[in-house]
Amino acid sequence: MAAERGARRLLGTSSFWLYCLLLLGRRAPGAAAARSGSAPQSPGASIRTFTPFYFLVEPVDTLSVRGSSVILNCSAYSEPSPKIEWKKDGTFLNLVSDDRRQLLPDGSLFISNVVHSKHNKPDEGYYQCVATVESLGTIISRTAKLIVAGLPRFTSQPEPSSVYAGNNAILNCEVNADLVPFVRWEQNRQPLLLDDRVIKLPSGMLVISNATEGDGGLYRCVVESGGPPKYSDEAELKVLPDPEVTSDLVFLKQPSPLVRVIGQDVVLPCVASGLPTPTIKWMKNEEALDTESSERLVLLAGGSLEISDVTEDDAGTYFCIADNGNETIEAQAELTVQAQPEFLKQPTNIYAHESMDIVFECEVTGKPTPTVKWVKNGDMVIPSDYFKIVKEHNLQVLGLVKSDEGFYQCIAENDVGNAQAGAQLIILEHDVAIPTLPPTSLTSATTDHLAPATTGPLPSAPRDVVASLVSTRFIKLTWRTPASDPHGDNLTYSVFYTKEGIARERVENTSHPGEMQVTIQNLMPATVYIFRVMAQNKHGSGESSAPLRVETQPEVQLPGPAPNLRAYAASPTSITVTWETPVSGNGEIQNYKLYYMEKGTDKEQDVDVSSHSYTINGLKKYTEYSFRVVAYNKHGPGVSTPDVAVRTLSDVPSAAPQNLSLEVRNSKSIMIHWQPPAPATQNGQITGYKIRYRKASRKSDVTETLVSGTQLSQLIEGLDRGTEYNFRVAALTINGTGPATDWLSAETFESDLDETRVPEVPSSLHVRPLVTSIVVSWTPPENQNIVVRGYAIGYGIGSPHAQTIKVDYKQRYYTIENLDPSSHYVITLKAFNNVGEGIPLYESAVTRPHTVPDPTPMMPPVGVQASILSHDTIRITWADNSLPKHQKITDSRYYTVRWKTNIPANTKYKNANATTLSYLVTGLKPNTLYEFSVMVTKGRRSSTWSMTAHGTTFELVPTSPPKDVTVVSKEGKPKTIIVNWQPPSEANGKITGYIIYYSTDVNAEIHDWVIEPVVGNRLTHQIQELTLDTPYYFKIQARNSKGMGPMSEAVQFRTPKASGSGGKGSRLPDLGSDYKPPMSGSNSPHGSPTSPLDSNMLLVIIVSVGVITIVVVVIIAVFCTRRTTSHQKKKRAACKSVNGSHKYKGNSKDVKPPDLWIHHERLELKPIDKSPDPNPIMTDTPIPRNSQDITPVDNSMDSNIHQRRNSYRGHESEDSMSTLAGRRGMRPKMMMPFDSQPPQHEETETQRYSVTVKFTQLVHKDWSPESVRNTPSTDTMPASSSQTCCTDHQDPEGATSSSYLASSQEEDSGQSLPTAHVRPSHPLKSFAVPAIPPPGPPTYDPALPSTPLLSQQALNHHIHSVKTASIGTLGRSRPPMPVVVPSAPEVQETTRMLEDSESSYEPDELTKEMAHLEGLMKDLNAITTA
Description:
The protein is mainly β. It has seven helices and 97 strands. It is flat and about 170 Å long.
């Protein structure tokens, strides 16, 4: 044992010295070059030469055992000889007082009796050789690792097992990794001899293949590491006879991921067991490995793979495939090959002057990528403002100073090892020129003026040096030529600059002679720099300018790039990215933005991250992505990191191979062809394909075959004759097997057919032409002994060679599609096999002409219904009897809806398609009747139109004003005008009335205009008693049930000037108490006196009215005296007239004696809508006119009086009368909408009623009683100028006033009856007797009636307040008599009110009434006598 240990130490020492000699041999040429490579000298100047200083031998990694001796070799060359020292773990060793460590004469380190224990490991560590020459500098060697093997420890030991004869067996023995070389095996306590059948793996495991009886026994492993041997437990291995039955195929040892260095050997273990005994095959990536012909690849016992002298090309995924004929299993492992650092470019020696910038270049390679650090004279170079690492590995020194001289070393290291290379820097004096051929490592700023200088005058200092531009990171300097050389065309300049307080100065030269400016880049923000400029001519550098102190501008402090950006795949669909906080954060980092992009695309995505790592999920499998990070602080985004690329992990394929096809070769073989899965579904490198096949009759007996990933076909042999087989193929990645294709069947031939010649001609060919296709059918050749692989069909117009289609040999017919109708085609048919195509068979055919038969029509839709949704929308629904009962559409049918309106009659249909059983028709006209029908279409079949459905859209407020508004004066009546118009073009419903606005001021507010309501759809109206020779402006507004439309444009009209008797009769006389009838007769409108016949007729009318009035008063007095009570006295209201103003106070029991008989049995209740306008207030209008607005009643004596239901609470109201001058400044307080149409919809919650009252007016028989109707909704009414006593009543929603403006027929006399002004009053209060017009025959113009003023039902919106026409005119001494219209009470209150009305007056009131009637009679007598 001792001899063996000694031999090992001797072998190790000799190997080390051999390595040193090889290293010395490699360095010798370089050393010779360095020794002979002195720099050239310029004339008259002495230049120091570079001194050769380098290592001849450097220490290497060493493995030792406890108690042994170790030599770490080191030798350096220099003149004079260098001093050698050693560092351990970065600290110098004190070898003078160390008994176990000695420095050998050549510089090597000798360690005797290595010490190593669990808690004391003084010798294990990293060693470095340091060589120093006092006058030159210091260099350090590479770092060597000394490993001391520890005490043997077994992590696994052999266990008893059994193996069938001829099969494989393994015995485990795992120890510390550093002790594996010292493991050996014993069988039955005797050393085990290893051979091709019994091997020891690098892990220490023992593999026995093709076991025999002699392999049985007791096994143990032994570890010999310098001390006493360490034995494992013994385990018995039993060898059993072959049972001759199959057993499952399993792996005893699978390969595991390995990492090796270039040049090492590697063993990939793989041992399988099963009956029959399996065979092992290896694949790398997608290629099968040929271990038989390769010199570096060896298949060891049991199936393990050994690779000698590993290279980078050996890296990859290796597959161990075990197959015993019945079953196939596989395992895989990744082999990673690493490389020690190696220099592609080493630093070179450099000459330089002070203040220059230099760069030492160093380019390295290795795997993993090495890290580079720089050492100057043995000390680490720390990056700073003047020592910078550029281009990843190069060292840049800025602003050289004398102390920068020395040796610089580039040290590269990775996980595998480290290496160093160095160069010398010599700084020359300024009067010594640098050699003419400067090294390439000098920067552009310092490479000028390297030629030796000559003697002569030098330039003076440049003048007026200023900083013309100062930024955050650069400064632009300008100056003038020196005084010694005003032109300065041949001068060059050097700008020296340094930070304030720093001795290291840098230089920047101008780019060409005569240039007097330079820009200094790469400065620091908010930093003070000192600048000076020197001029140079051919003799050398001149004087320096005075120092210039300049401070750079501060800049927004943005973050720098985040360091150590790393990305690694966490799963097939996720990647984790990590980074660190930026070195130059410039304040608190608020967040980061992570950008990532799929390789090959230009769409970059981003995500906000608050931490230093983030996992991006949902990525594509086995796809490469690039990542970068940008840090954000309060100033904004910083500098982006460089992109880092990483690929997501692979996964099993997500799709089956494509285009699987089978080709029967003969009676015992079938060729399978396929294509890889789609690239997006491969999810990794396809490493192979698994082919499974079985007989169609035996579905359980499946055979598997594995092929490489590059193979896209496989010949399956050894099949049975005339048997049908099913085949399927699945793709493999390193992650597993993907989905398989569907089973595809093929049948082997019954006998081996001849394929040495082409097939014969098919026995028959038949064609059947259609419109755009031809059906081709055939029978195979008569000679069935020649293989037919398929048939080739050629066709074309006039030639069969235009297109060719190949079909399977089993096929007997084919349809050629997409042909032209009515065309002559020539068709050929040829059978083919692998030899070629046989003799063709020809046929021709003419396609049929293109005719479209009428398809059978479908049943039209039924049950078409039109549901009105709004003024412009109707929903059409229908049913389809050709659909199932659930009416669910499952095919491609669609429906066509058409619609039209009959106005105008020639309107065209509009159509729309729908795919459901309903359609929403929009864009219709309001209040328009439409008819709809539906048709169904399916493919080329269509139904007839269905039965029509009709629907009328809802009304909408008029959207256009009345048109063609004209105003003309009435012939013979200059104060009366006639307004004509046409309905709005867009009425959007039935017009229920119009409102005429007129005013003398076209610019007045609309509520200051006088209004005239027109009921119904009449298109003409007359307005009376206008002021002569006055311009008036007229506007008209239409209304339907939905509301008011827009107003028309103002139309101007000037009334005629006065004529005849100088204006007499232009105003009605004031019928006050002072009234005296005129002595002369009234004039007609034309100024002519009235005829005697008219006077007599008028007299008869007046007398009749007087008699009837007296009779009525007497009857009322009788009733009132019977019912008068003291309680009713207190609640009676008084009517007073003061200056034309009348106030009414009282309650529902203050009832005047009726002037009309009320037939209570004719009382009728009707529901009506309620008005939202409570308690309107009436005022007069500013335009003076006489009222003549009592509308003639129909021949019937009945009239509907619609009035709002009242609560009959006591309420005060006023009715004011003033002159025109006094009224012009008043603001109107009433609204004048109206509605002539009764309600058409449901009743409201509060029921309202309309009361129909039949009454008889006791006047002359030739003067028809007025039919006055109150509409359902009442708003404000015009104020009365007559004296009226009435009571306001207010319903719970608010007081609603009902008023009526009755128009009378016109009379030729020009004098009109006063307008009846109506206030809400007691339900039984009657009309007062109107004033009697002057005598004259009553003449009526029924074509131009004046409409009564009606209330409006406000449905959708409120109408603004307007002023109504004045009843009186200026100059009247007495207002007209009032006419009071009854309000409709509630039904339950009617009887009580009737009873109250019978006794509502006392004798004193009757006396006043009689006095009033007497005054009236006097007036009548005065008129009669006149």
